[in-house]
Amino acid sequence: MSLTTTQHDILVKYLKDVGIGHQEPFEEFYDHIATAIENDRPEELSEYLIEVIQLSFGGVKGIKRIVLSQRKARSKMIWKRMKEIFLSLFGWPAIGIVMVSFILVQTSFIQLGTKFTILITVGLGLILPYIIIAYGTISFYQDCRNKNKGYRNSDLNSSLWLFIHLPFTFINIFGNFLIPVLVGREAFKIFATENLWFNTSLCAIALLYGFTCLKLMKEQFIFKLEVA
Prior knowledge:
By secondary structure, this protein is mostly helical. The protein has helices spanning 5-17, 23-40, 45-56, 59-88, 95-112, 114-146, 155-182, 185-194, 196-216.
């Protein structure tokens, strides 16, 4: 047995009413409750959701606590997975890609100049992933709206936006606060201009960071609720 269209609509509306607005928790609760409905076959679904399902989770507050708890746990999982993806690039055989990135960046510095190379690597490593993630988020929103799903965002998309903004935040903090105070803009400018390996490392890391964010887009972070 599967849910009828009417049952589906009632369940979707219920989940939206209790404040579950992201894909992962929405689908987890949907699957759990749909299974319970198929097993119990209640005559009045709206009453069943409130008097049986809702109470089994400790009321609306209990549901929200579960969602918040899982969101925190999922966020940790996403951060951990991002770290694993990034560090895996320095293992075999991916280390070959890293070495090639360093060589290409260093060659570009010598042949094309510092400013051009920095612009290209920042564009490829930070701005391009930013555009792709923005497009993916908008497409996800449009797809959910067109299919009339009960959510428009996901925990993964929210985390990806945080990740893609981090480098720009660090650049802003270091460029406008730490560098002027600690070493001075002119002194840092001279150091950065004369230190080829410093620039090469920063540009290569920017490329690898962008690759990590893009690869993370394909991951899934799902928990399974146990049927009461």
